[in-house]
Input
Amino acid sequence: MASVMLRPGESQDQLLKRFRKTVAKARILSTVRRKRWFTSKSELRRIKHQKAVRRERRRRHKLESRRDRRR
Output
């Protein structure tokens, strides 16, 4: 659980901003969103495969665009 203590002379806005940064660094929200619904192992494998395919397509596209600029 992320927690922050109010520092002397710190405003509520600064405290809230610091808390949000702490939560973001701890990746709490992404974990909660991911675990909100049950996903089977086969579904996780399928999603992982789709991400890998997208990542590879982006990488190839980037390399091809670099080659085109060199010509």
About this structure: The CA atoms of residues 54 and 60 lie 10 Å apart. The chain has a mean pLDDT of 92. Helices lie at 12-26, 28-34, 41-70. The longest helix spans residues 41-70.
